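ESCALATION

Customer reports they have been waiting on this structure for their group meeting. Please prioritize. Original submission:
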Amino acid sequence: MRFIWAIIAGLFLAAGVLLFRSPDAARTSPPANPAPTSDADVDSPSPVDRISSLASTADVASPEATTATTAITATASTAAVIEPSSLPEAITPQDQSVTELTHVLVAGDTLQSIARRRYGDERLWRKIVDANPDLAAGKLELGDTIELPPLESIEVVDPAASLIADLDAGRSARPATSTDAEPIEVAPEAPRLDLGLDREILDATVVPGDLVRLADDRFVADGEFTIRGKGTREAPYRVSWELLASAADTYRPSLGERAIPQRIAALDGAWIRIDGYVAFPLGGEEATEILVILNQWDGCCIGVPPTPYDAIEVALTNAVPRSQRHAISFGTLVGRLQVSPYLVENWLVGLYLMDDAEISLEL
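Update from on-call: job pushed to the front of the queue and completed.
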């Protein structure tokens, strides 16, 4: 009986302890699911409140975190009064203007960006190349210094004029006498020809020359070139590379010169015969398109690369099998010539085509 009363007394004691602790618990512990008292209570905490909460948590972590989050809290509390347009953008070294006469190349530099920072116009990057020839040669690296002089002091370099000057110098060094075996003799009463004057050549104007008939199968062009044959398949014109290359005398589109001499226009649409080096395409069982050129050239570093004036793109009537060709061969071609300029932004890429051609190789 006393055991039962002891149990009842223990229960009353436990109930008294619980009643004694309940006021403190109500003060320190929030209800599990508090009922909202207003619309504001339903909304989520503001960004400032969330950052403040993070700051109070960071106080326990480290003094550095406290400093960082305090700064964030201050920024967040004033963000509402800062207009986005008033915030400064990040300025990188590539955006800063250049006023010095020299500049050290750093990562991120481009010729356009340097030109914009130095001269105010990124299209003037070619001026930087003109002032620093080593740039074009690919000799400069990061950390090297380039010159950025005033625009008026930079010498204008015209690559096209330089190339043409070299071509003119080479032509002036050519022997004055014709390579033909027979000398050119033109009688005053010899008939003049209008061959080629009626030809319409794209991106060119045919200018009259002096074509003189010497015989039924021979005429002289401008007192320099003897052309034999009748321009037919059975009796093609026998032309020289010097004759074809002479188109460069007046036809240089990159310099604004677009006059095709009558002696060249006279060959347009005519059958011709010419000797030269033949470059076959790599690969394939049979070749139907080839390139015939004046100089032997392997496409890499031996010989003189062809120009539009001393190369003909040829389409063959009969394919040449792999067993009968080498990378470079010498041969004779007979086909119908077309004077067909191919321009890319006024730069002459190709001039002569040949269709229905047949080739005789010297292996």
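Sent to customer with the following note: The domain at 93-153 is CATH 3.10.350.10 (Membrane-bound Lytic Murein Transglycosylase D; Chain A).
Escalation resolved.
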